[in-house]
């Protein structure tokens, strides 16, 4: 058989294999759906209707905020106003974007979120690898303390953390905002569970070939864990971007304020400006919307595989 004849056959075989894999995936999804909510089409229709109702209820406040941001201030203050009867306007966005500090606060939030994400993923991955694939004295005790710290409310640590940052001279600095946020016991636990599933035969073979602990971590474990690392990074980034309490406590200088903290300090002599507040909220949520649009599949996979839906 010539090469010209074998090439189309190999391509058709590859296409057929992909089609069969897609059909198998759809069949597995249908089977999982039947096992989850039952085989009856009426039950599935009722479940779908309930999900649609819950989605609409969840989206209503977001829709109200978006519509309010395009209203005139006088109309936005009316309690019974939903649709802008006076017409759509961008005055609220012009007022908000006219604030010279807004872009600085957005840049600060981006810097803090990126640093927190990078350091959290790195530290959590190293700790999880140590708990999962190494043996050392006191490992069980450290694992117990890590799991126990998950159940501890973060608000309990605010005062000692602030005292520590104050003693180190890190108040009103990016380091003071970032460092207390990089310790994430939940992420350590999630990554450890994933690392436990890595075949030990693969790691043992690498050790026989002379690979040390660091080489195992960087060249084998991390490349095999890209999916879970991306999922963890996305959730950490979202949490760091939305974090308000700790940056609010550790910063008083507008030069270092993040976007949630900066927006909370904006006041007007004429009282509450609902349209401007909603416009500020929409602008603050825009980067997260972009992240969700770009990594939608990763976020859904992360919720499904890590159980971080409540984060």
Key traits:
311 residues, mainly alpha, 16 helices, globular
Protein described:
The chain has 311 residues and is an all-alpha fold. The protein has 16 helices and no strands. The protein has helices spanning 3-37, 41-68, 73-76, 91-97, 102-133, 139-150, 158-167, 174-178, 185-196, 200-208, 213-224, 226-242, 245-250, 259-265, 274-294, 296-306. α6 packs across α9 (185-196) and α12 (226-242) crosses α16 (296-306). The radius of gyration is 25 Å and the shape is globular.
Oligomer classification: single chain
Order of helices and strands: HHHHHHHHHHHHHHHH
Helix segment tally: 16
Low-confidence stretches: 1-8
Shape: globular
Query: CA-to-CA gap between the ends?
Result: 58 Å
Radius of gyration: 25 Å
Helix content: over 70%
What do the pLDDT scores average to?
A: 79
Number of strands: 0
What proportion strand? under 5%
Topology diagram in text:
Layout: H1 3-37, H2 41-68, H3 73-76, H4 91-97, H5 102-133, H6 139-150, H7 158-167, H8 174-178, H9 185-196, H10 200-208, H11 213-224, H12 226-242, H13 245-250, H14 259-265, H15 274-294, H16 296-306
């Amino acid at each position: 058989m010539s090469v010209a004849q074998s090439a189309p056959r190999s391509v058709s075989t590859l296409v057929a294999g992909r089609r069969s894999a897609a059909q198998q995936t759809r069949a597995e999804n249908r089977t999982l759906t039947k096992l989850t909510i039952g085989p009856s089409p009426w039950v599935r229709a009722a479940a779908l209707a309930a999900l649609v109702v819950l989605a609409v209820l969840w989206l209503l406040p977001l829709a109200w905020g978006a519509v309010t941001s395009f209203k005139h201030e006088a109309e936005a203050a009316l309690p019974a106003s939903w649709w802008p009867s006076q017409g759509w306007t961008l005055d609220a966005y012009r007022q908000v974007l006219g604030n010279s500090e807004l872009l600085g606060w957005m840049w600060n939030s981006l810097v803090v979120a990126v640093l927190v994400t990078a350091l959290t993923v790195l530290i959590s991955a190293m700790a999880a690898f140590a708990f999962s694939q190494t043996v050392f004295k006191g490992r069980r005790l450290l694992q117990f303390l890590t799991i126990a710290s998950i159940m501890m409310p973060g608000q309990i640590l605010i005062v000692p953390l602030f005292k520590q940052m104050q003693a180190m001279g890190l108040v009103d600095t990016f380091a003071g905002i970032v460092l207390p946020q990089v310790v994430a016991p939940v992420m350590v636990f999630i990554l450890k569970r994933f690392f436990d599933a890595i075949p030990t035969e693969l790691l043992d073979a690498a050790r026989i070939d002379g690979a040390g602990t660091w080489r195992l971590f960087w060249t084998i474990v991390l490349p095999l864990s890209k999916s879970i690392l991306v999922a963890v990074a996305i959730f950490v980034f979202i949490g760091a971007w939305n974090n308000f309490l700790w940056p609010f406590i550790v910063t008083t200088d507008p030069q270092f304020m993040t976007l949630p903290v900066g927006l909370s300090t904006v006041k007007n002599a004429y009282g509450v400006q609902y349209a401007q507040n909603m416009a500020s909220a929409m602008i603050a949520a825009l980067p997260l919307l972009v992240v969700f649009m770009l990594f939608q599949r990763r976020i859904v996979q992360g919720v499904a595989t890590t159980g971080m839906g409540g984060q």
